[in-house]
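We modelled each protein-ligand pair independently. The example shown here corresponds to the 1,3-bisphosphoglyceric acid entry; the chain sequence is given first, followed by the ligand as SMILES.
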Amino acid sequence: MAFGTLQDVDIRGKTVLVRVDFNSPIDPTSEMILDDKRFREHIPTIRALEDGKVVIVTHQSRPGKKDFTTLASHAEKLERLIHRPVTYIDDIFGRTAHEAIRTMRAGEILMLENVRFNAEENLTMKPEDAAKTHLVRRLSEMGDLFVNDAFGTAHRSQPTVVGIPRVMKTVAGLLMEREITMLSKVSSGAPHPITFILGGTKVDDSIAVADHVLRNGIADRILAIGVVGNIFLAAEGRAIGEPSRQLIESLGYTGEIQKARDILAQYADQVLLPETVAVREKGERAEYPVSGIPQDTPILDLGSESVRSMVDQIRSSGTIVFNGPAGVFEDPDFAIGTYELVRAAAGVEFSVVGGGHTAAVIEKMGLESAYSHLSTGGGACIEFLTGKKLPAVAALEASWEYFGR
Ligand SMILES: Nc1ncnc2c1ncn2[C@@H]1O[C@H](COP(=O)(O)OP(=O)(O)O)[C@@H](O)[C@H]1O
Ligand SMILES: O=C(OP(=O)(O)O)[C@H](O)COP(=O)(O)O
């Protein structure tokens, strides 16, 4: 690793600013946090800092969104999960925050207010400009060391992510370190054959990943499922039906069909498409070959034959990268494809999952521990898998180069 980690620093007695990503789905009426995965994943880092004074910096959502809210319930959630008191301060870098930190003792945990309440945190900036913001200057005065554990935000070039590492010694937290290690292994050191399962609705991301991993010889094969599968079927010239076409159009992905065609032209042997699909007919699941898809009803899942052949491909893989479901799994009649592929991938030697929906299915099936790694990043994981250097990682490396040695 070209950046520092918790092993490289002495925490004792220090005030440690820790950037985490507790951004989570919240029920708009009850304000209840609906998924605590990101909390659970950051806990090892927070525990590892217990010899210091821990000051947590995080965001929740973005300005203008319904779930852009204060962090009182986040502090309560963390307190319950970590079994230690967590003091919530409704301030980011003002006098109240300064005073609260000044009187902290080693072992205590404090959570600052939603850092995106400060307008500067919502700007995309170069690290050198981010370092000059009030937010970075004032926050950095409040600690001795910065720990960035927020992998979920690692693709954002925002002040706390890229600015603070320029002005104070910064190391990666345990989650950040594990995410980078596991995702890096996909492109170097993972057992072959390497199969990418690309599904769900984020077609532009999936096409970018497919292009990168095929072009660079990272993937041996791609299984295209969900709406991504429909795009590839359309690219192959299949009549996927009006509703599935309309969905692609409404998501703004019609232009991706040509990109899928280009991928098929170069890597036809490595991209596996559905051979059969499932639709709803008279209220029930019905299956058709892709040569005869009914034109007036949407594709909702893989057909059983395709499930079987994709499961075989998965079972013969050394590595699986799973991103996005095979169908509208929220409806039990159309969950078969997703569930069967998830079950098969759990048995593979090295298995990495990106994407909230896929991870939620895995957790619901109780298969979390059978997978090698469930990433906490959506966008960050995708950017990593498309070969981009994440701004947070570049900032960690530069900080270590400057302050670390
Ligand atoms: N054929 C399909 N038609 C419509 N929606 C689909 C289809 N296949 C999958 N989906 C939907 O994709 C959604 C998840 O996609 P996405 O957000 O990209 O996944 P992830 O969060 O795992 O990255 C699910 O809500 C599921 O219903
Ligand atoms: O949840 C996040 O991203 P994700 O939904 O892509 O996983 C991060 O907290 C980043 O949030 P942002 O996309 O509002 O910058």
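The first helix runs from residue 37 to 48.
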